[in-house]
Specification:
two-stranded parallel ribbon, alpha/beta, about 290 residues, globular, seven-stranded parallel beta sheet, single chain, 9 helices, Rossmann fold, 11 strands
């Protein structure tokens, strides 16, 4: 007998797999290039404030925007960690290009405090982009959250942006600002309050050329989050930053970063509220029954 011939299906599979790998890698490479170009065009030479810059998302934002040529102001609660982040950004910079060292501000508030905003305006004379990236844990009363937002927007940033008739306010908020989850009453209330504040603010400042965007997300982490016996796949920080860069570039008003199920739930809440409420109530009953077992 002559040498056996390879099955055509096997041959096709052997040839197809490397092609798929190469194409996928190429798409990711192109995607990274596009995000890089967008970050350079949308933030180059812009004065950008990032609150809670020491979080995973804050650090990723700082890295992308610093490479894009932004004049960064990093706000956080630990001066030593801010110094370390600034050093990391400096060491990762392209030595052939001149970049502005990040300005570091120690800030114990949940947003960027009024005094910090005043210092920034005195130093740079303007503020182009304010990224409000903060957790606002549910233990904080939502009235306190609103008070902090008013301090930042009304007493600090807005007068400068209105006088220049330009600027961008971007809120990174939990999806619970649009979709409630049982047993998260205070947390959901704070998220809804901030979401409503920005929705109103958007309409009020549009005539002055100021953009207001909200990005609602589920979990954002650099790895999977483990809770009890379950492991939840979190959205990666770099994916969220890619959405932030695109939002700054195209000035989208609202973005939701979430798997399909939460997005469907948001639409169900709007168009089929009774069905949504029934499902949520059934989930609470099942949880209570499970705890009794």
């Amino acid at each position: 007998h002559g040498p056996s011939e390879m099955d055509p299906a096997v041959t096709t599979t052997v040839l197809l797999v490397p092609c798929v790998v190469v194409i996928t890698a190429g798409l990711f490479y192109l995607y990274g290039m596009v995000v890089g170009l967008l970050s350079k065009t949308s933030v180059r030479n812009k004065v950008v404030v990032i609150t809670d810059a020491l979080s995973g998302l804050g650090k990723e934002c700082a890295s992308v925007f610093h490479k894009g040529g932004a004049r960064l102001i990093l706000c956080g609660k630990s001066w030593e960690k801010l110094e370390g982040l600034a050093d990391d950004l400096a060491s990762a910079s392209d030595p052939t290009k001149v970049s502005t060292p990040p300005l570091k501000k120690k800030d114990h508030s949940d947003s960027c405090s009024e005094s910090v905003i005043a210092e920034i305006l005195e130093c740079y004379g303007c503020l182009d982009i304010l990224i409000l990236n903060t957790a606002w844990f549910y233990r904080i009363c939502f009235v306190l959250v609103l008070r902090n937002m008013l301090y930042v927007s009304v007493s600090g940033v807005l007068p400068s942006m209105i006088s220049r008739r330009t600027g961008h306010l971007l809120l990174v908020n939990s999806i619970q600002g649009k979709l409630t989850v049982p047993f998260r009453t205070t947390y959901a209330a704070s998220k809804h309050a901030v979401q409503a504040f920005f929705d109103c603010l958007r309409a009020e400042v549009e005539e002055y050329g100021i953009s207001v965007s909200t990005i609602s997300h589920t979990f954002i982490s650099s790895s999977a989050r483990v809770s009890g016996d379950f492991t939840y796949k979190c959205g990666l920080a770099y994916e969220a930053v890619a959405e932030i860069v695109k939002t700054l570039s195209n000035k989208r008003k609202e973005v939701v970063i979430a798997p399909s199920l939460p997005k469907v739930a948001i639409y169900a809440r709007s168009f089929f509220p009774n069905v949504f409420f029934a499902v949520m109530a059934a989930g609470v009953k099942n949880a209570a029954a499970f705890e009794k077992m």
